[in-house]
Every structure is written in structure tokens, then in C-alpha cells.
Amino acid sequence: MAKSKASMWVEKYRPKSVNDVASQEEVVKSLLGAIEQGALPHLLFYGPPGTGKTSTILAMTRMLYHKDVWRDRVLEMNASDERGIKVIRQKVKAFAQRAVGTKTYAGYPSPPFKIIILDEADTMTKDAQGALRRTMETYSNVTRFCLVCNYVSRIIEPLASRCAKYRFSPLDKESMRTRLLSIAQAENVNYPNEVYDNILDFSQGDMRRAVNLLQSCVNFYGANGTISPDALLEVSGQIPPQIISNVWSALNSKSFAEVANTVDYVIKEGYPALALLTKIHDDVIHSSSISDHNKAVIIERLAQADKALADGADDSLQLHDVLLTLLQHNNDK
Prior knowledge:
By secondary structure, this protein is of the alpha/beta class. The chain has helices at 2-6, 9-12, 25-37, 53-64, 67-73, 85-96, 126-138, 157-160, 173-186, 193-203, 207-221, 229-236, 241-252, 256-268, 273-286, 292-310, 315-329; strands spanning 43-46, 74-78, 114-119, 143-149, 164-167. Residues 39-174 form the AAA+ ATPase domain. Pfam families: AAA (PF00004), RCF1-5-like_lid (PF21960), Rep_fac_C (PF08542).
């Protein structure tokens, strides 16, 4: 058990086969057809985090290539760490132009091309994407590319148009529950059903988050008994309801000083700005006291903040700006 706790369950229980990918039936069906034929276009996987994009392409490569040649045929890179044009021109190009061996293995299609996986490709610079497009064109006879991203709109059109696009949707609760219970059984975890219900509620269709949360619960509270919603909230890193209540109280006071103090408290306590903005978004959508016009203004500002945070903007500045917009439009019909 000690060894199991030390390893990351999200890696340990990654799907070994495309058939094991949960709740993405159309994607799986299409890719299985490509595996049978041994023919593969360039691929673009997009959708929310934790929906199986990276797991799917990794499982697919393991069905295509025997483990003895897998590292020679597959290059996996995280584009958010290596996203400049220099990496594309050197590391990617060097792998792409290498010749492909002809050795085959029984039970593996072993197609005559290599595969380069670029995770978080939407963080690549425009220049790097342009260089990648040219590399794809030049070496398409011996190399296939799979771009994995959350935001397909950030992939330049000349690059996206060269790929077969597959959208990964958030996982439904039943598929997630089945997978979570399977992992719990394998790890001898015995929790009542309400614990799994709470984990699924916190995860919001993100399987990776659900598995990490389950493992955190086991590490902090043991593998047996029950876990209170408050304890689960603490482990999950979600924003406590009281903090959300304090934000709305500050907004309703119409005092910028009080709003600023609340934002400072949220930042000092280490709560992520994006989690707070998500809660605010949900409250605004369901509010009966904010007019439709003002909701539109607020939601647009939230979207701008979401993009700014994804691009590396400061949490505190974005929260101040969003809450100032709310201060101007909250209850203002």
C-alpha cells in the first residue's frame, strides 16, 4: 500500500487501450478504425481538462507500436514548457526527419511513420505554430502530429486545417463513478457512496481531478470510514461557501474598499482566482436580481479574465478588475 500511495494513481490507472477510454464513444470508434487500417492523419484533440485527450493518444500509440520500439517511434512534449520557435526548429524537426525502421511485431500494426504528441499546444506562440505547420508539411510522409489542447480557438487556422479534429466532452457522472469505484476497489478503498458523490460534484466532469481527489482523501484521512464534506472541500482546494458569501456581502455594500479588502484576503489565503471566478459566474447566471444586460456585461468580463489568467496575468489584478465590474453592475437594473 505504501508503494501505491507514493505513485500517482492518475498515471497508474491511465487507459492501456483506446477501448478503455471512458465516455468518448465517437472518438474511440473513429480511432479504432484508423488503428485497424494503420492509417492516421494529423490529429487535433481539444476539450476541457481531464476528459482523456492525452490518455487517448498515448493508449493509441501503445496499440500501434510494440514497447521495444515505442520510444523510437513516439515523442511526447508539453508545449507549455517548450513552446518557442527554437524548440520546433530543433527538437521537433530533428525527431520528425528521422527515418522510420521497418521492423514489425505480431499484434501491432507498426505503421511506417512516427508520432509526435504536443500537449497543451494552445500555449505555443504563433511563430512556433507557423514553424510547426511547415514542419508538418515537409515530413508528413514519415511523421504524424497530434496536437492536444483545451482551447481550439488558439490554434492558428493553417495548422488546425491540416488535422482531423476530435472534441472531448466532459465525462458524465456514471462513467466517472464506474471508473472511480474500479480504482477504489483496486486500492482497497472503502468509502460510503456519499463520499464518491461529493468527489464527483467537486470534479465537474474532470476525471483527472476526481482521481487525484480520491487519492488525496486516502493519503490524508485513510482508506476506510467516511469523510465530511468540509474535509473534502479542504482537500479539493475549492473556495469555501463562506468566502463566496463574503465576496457578495462586500459587493452589496457598494464599497470598493471592502471589495478590495476581500480580494486581498482571498489572495493571502491562497485561493486560486479562477476557482473564485467560476463560482461568481455560476452565481451571476442564476441571479434573479441582475438584469440580462448586466449579466452579459459581467460574463464578458469574466471571459476576458479567464483568458488573461490562462495567459499568465496576475490573480489579484484580475480579481480586482472583475469585482469592480460587478460593483458597477450588481443590482443595477
